[in-house]
From TrEMBL:
This is D-inositol 3-phosphate glycosyltransferase. Keywords: Glycosyltransferase, Transferase. Gene3D superfamilies: Glycogen Phosphorylase B (3.40.50.2000). It holds the Pfam family Glycos_transf_1. Residues 200-361 form the Glycosyl transferase family domain. The keyword Glycosyltransferase applies. Residues 105-190 form the Glycosyltransferase subfamily 4-like N-terminal domain. CDD domains: GT4_PimA-like.
Length: 384
């Protein structure tokens, strides 16, 4: 079987010190690889965090120099104009080019380009098997004709949910639909444990974990808490705009704090924390909320919350229902009243809370990373 080589976003860190979804997924797949398969590799830009996951071998490369005309002509605008003219998106493509400088020395491999359609044309398809691994709808700004040009040599388009697969197909010619496959994200259930003593007589702990972006819905859960007249619920909002706990607060983060001020100590804000602390926080939580207002392709936090033994309340949108339905509570996105009602029910009825948490834990075991790795292996073998 060919070796698998993962390309993550240039400049991203293959490290537990960040909360980036793509490195988390690559680590999960690599750690759970099928016995007897070659050790996978990850293309990692030189100078990124040195405390790397040990699940895959790092192949380092020098990052491309910054786009020199950024202030005059932003990259996205230039590439969008080139695409309209039927030309390659050369500016973003140049950021990926250094990663492939030594591909002639690699053994014939399957190259998984994570969230990088413009990297596909750079893979030597005569030697390697190019695969696009989509964690988001990467083709929103692509016409079907451009998708066909850019992805003509791609062998598979792996999507993290069926919902995302459907979105991607809308931007692909019908002839390419058969290349679109689904490999759901997974979770290491052994890493997530219910914290000892969490059943003691104390307020229920509700956790929101994610980047402080409006579409992630932290404002919705604060609004829901303001509607609840309950002293037996505490909300912990964990995350920052990026992956730096010491960064200055953004306007949106300040807005959230003003909205939560009337709730006093019922709401606690914690800036970005490394992965191991996220695991601990989820293990201490009774309820995990995932109140996204956009078409979240998968939402790893929902799956990790269930693995930690928490009851999950999440938005009924995008790929979230594919993991939560039947094992958590789904509410309409952006509906603070519905979210408040779900939290109120869990707080009022310990049995509903227990059943929801137990169902989530069982559901999480069905999404073990080993299952995802086997699924990916079988798909790769079919096109090798």
């Amino acid at each position: 079987m060919r070796e698998i080589i993962h390309l993550i976003t240039p400049g991203d860190h293959y490290s537990p010190s960040t909360g980036s979804a793509i490195p988390t997924v690559v680590h999960g797949l690599s750690r759970a690889r099928t016995a007897g398969t070659p050790e996978p590799s990850v293309l990692v830009a030189r100078g990124t965090y040195p405390d790397r996951y040990r699940s895959a071998r790092a192949i380092e490369y020098e990052q491309a120099s910054p786009w020199p005309l950024e202030r005059v002509a932003p990259r996205r605008i230039v590439d969008a104009a080139l695409a309209v003219l039927g030309m390659p998106r050369l500016v973003v493509r140049r950021t990926f080019r250094p990663a492939f400088a030594d591909q002639g020395s690699w053994s014939p491999s399957v190259v998984l380009c994570h969230n990088a359609p413009q990297a596909i044309p750079l893979v030597d398809h005569r030697r390697h098997v190019p695969v696009l691994y989509a964690h988001n709808n990467l083709l929103r700004s692509y016409s079907r004709a451009e998708s066909a040009r850019v992805l003509r040599h791609v062998r598979l388009i792996v999507c993290v949910s069926g919902s995302l697969a459907d979105e991607m197909k809308e931007h692909l010619p019908t002839s390419m639909h058969a290349r679109v496959v689904v490999v759901h994200n997974g979770v290491d259930t052994s890493a997530f444990q219910r914290a000892p003593g969490r059943d003691h007589d104390r307020p229920l702990q509700v956790a929101f974990v994610g980047r402080m972006l409006r579409e992630k819905g932290a404002g919705v859960v604060i609004d829901a808490f303001r509607r609840l007249d309950r002293d037996d619920l505490r909300l912990r909002i964990v995350g920052s705009d990026g992956f730096d706990a010491n960064a200055a607060l953004t306007g949106f983060e300040l807005e959230l704090r003003r909205a939560a001020a009337p709730l006093g100590d019922r709401v606690e804000f914690t800036p970005f924390v490394p992965r191991e602390q996220v695991v601990r926080i989820l293990g201490e939580s009774d309820i995990v909320v995932v109140p996204s207002t956009w078409r979240e392709p998968f939402a790893l936090t929902a799956l990790e919350g269930m693995a930690a033994g928490a009851a999950v309340v999440a938005s009924d949108i995008g790929g979230i229902p594919e993991t939560v339905r039947g094992a958590g509570i789904l509410v309409p996105p952006g509906d603070a009243g519905a979210l408040a009602a779900a939290l109120d029910e869990l707080a009022r009825d310990p049995e509903v809370l227990r059943r929801t948490a137990a169902a989530g834990r069982v559901r999480a075991t069905e999404f073990d990373w080993s299952r995802a790795a086997r699924r990916l292996d079988s798909l790769v073998r079919a096109v090798d």
